[in-house]
Specification:
The complex is a heterodimer of chains A (173) and B (144). The two termini of chain A are 26 Å apart. Chain A is globular, with a radius of gyration of 16 Å. The longest helix of chain A has 38 residues, at 135-172. Chain A is built from seven helices and no strands. Chain A is an all-alpha fold and 173 residues long. Chain A has one domain (2-172): Arp2/3 complex 21 kDa subunit ARPC3. Chain B has two domains: 3-43; 50-132, N-utilization substance G protein NusG, insert domain (mini-chromosome maintenance (MCM) complex, domain 2), CATH 2.60.320. Chain B contains two helices and seven strands. Chain B has helices at 3-17, 22-43, and strands spanning 50-56, 59-65, 73-80, 83-89, 94-99, 118-121, 126-132. A four-stranded antiparallel beta sheet of chain B has the order 2-1-7-6, with no helix packed on it. The chains are: A mainly alpha (173), B alpha+beta (144). Chain A binds chain B through residues 98, 102, 104-111, 113-114, 117, 131-133, 135-136, 138-139, 141-142, 145-146, 148-149, 152, 156-157, 160, and chain B through 17-22, 24-26, 28-30, 32-34, 36-37, 39-40, 43-44, 67, 70, 72, 90-93, 113.
């Protein structure tokens, strides 16, 4: 990997902190009850958004993969990595396009909301393939869209304020 | 701080966070949601719970609630004299997988999932149909 050789110690440390924070959020999030099974608050997405703003899509992919794999292992269900990654990659692709192409017009809250929506779409596609039926897709999609409107906005606003302060802190390191 | 000033400060903060094209994003998600909800109502028999009813010789021998089992299950029905049907109940569909009836029409029928659909195995006089919970619920009052 060429990326690793280029990575400065400072960046390595910041990324390590971001990933471990995301993992902790990912873990504790599973204790928060949600109205619909399979829905998640997606708070760990805050860390992904922060990575996108501070660094580039490559680092975001790194954070996403490490967080999904380790998070699934921690949750005790290695198979959930399929859902986690399929949703995560679709969401990341959408967020990268929105943030880098339309970042001037769309806020982090907007980026995060569409990211959350596509995270759910990706997970439902994976679930439909695993269960062999698209019935889950039709019945679940609308409810998850409604849910992601709120979680996505909240995540985006949280990232908005975190980034502002983190930029100062990281710049002063 | 007066109420108006409070509202003003909230609006200012929101203006600092949100940007104009966000409306497009929210519009998109809401459109997907509304279309999805409309779709579900049409496709799924107006949101009713659906039951699959298996009948033999006009008598109900099994009822299964769809969308309650996560794992597909197979039900074997013996029609006597070595005649049998194997019925597969998936998450939201039901189909006849295997049968030793002469014409095999029921096996080629495929999956049914919406209210009103039926599979008929004429030689063994087996009928599988899907009904909504409110219409002719085949279960007695005690079960409800």
């Amino acid at each position: 990997m060429t990326m690793r050789s280029k990575m400065s110690p400072k960046k390595l440390i910041v990324l390590a902190i971001i990933i471990s924070t995301a993992l902790v959020i990912h873990y504790f999030e599973s204790f928060i009850p949600v109205p619909a099974p399979g829905a998640k608050l997606g708070l760990a997405n805050i860390m992904l958004l922060i990575t996108l703003v501070l660094y580039s899509p490559y680092e975001a992919v790194l954070v996403l993969v490490v967080r999904s794999v380790l998070g699934s292992l921690m949750a005790g269900n290695p198979w959930s990595v399929i859902y986690s990654l399929s949703g995560g990659f679709l969401s990341l692709i959408v967020m990268v396009i929105l943030y880098y192409k339309f970042g001037k017009h769309i806020s982090l809250a907007g980026v995060s909301t569409l990211g959350a929506a596509f995270h759910n779409i990706g997970q439902l596609i994976a679930a439909s393939i695993v269960f062999g039926t698209f019935g889950i897709f039709y019945t679940y999609l609308p409810a998850l869209m409604l849910f992601s409107l709120f979680t996505g906005t909240f995540t985006g606003i949280a990232a908005h304020f975190s980034v502002r302060n983190l930029k100062k802190i990281i710049g002063s390191l | 701080m007066s109420f108006k000033m409070k509202v003003n400060s909230v609006v200012k903060q929101a203006q600092a966070i949100f940007k104009p094209w966000d409306a497009l994003v929210y519009g998109m998600v809401i459109v997907i949601m509304v279309v999805g909800f409309a779709n579900v109502r049409i496709l799924m028999g107006n949101g009713r719970e659906r039951l699959a009813i298996i009948e033999m010789d006009g008598e109900i021998i099994d009822t299964i609630y769809l969308e309650q089992n996560k794992i597909a299950q197979e039900i074997r029905i013996d029609a006597g004299d070595g005649k049998y049907n194997v019925i597969l109940v998936g998450y939201d569909y039901i189909e006849i997988l295997e049968s030793n009836c002469p014409d095999q029409v029921c096996v080629g029928w495929g999956r049914i999932r919406y209210t009103g659909q039926t599979i008929v195995c004429l030689p063994f006089r087996i009928v599988v149909r899907i009904v909504g919970r409110t219409e002719q619920a085949p279960v007695d009052d005690i079960t409800w």
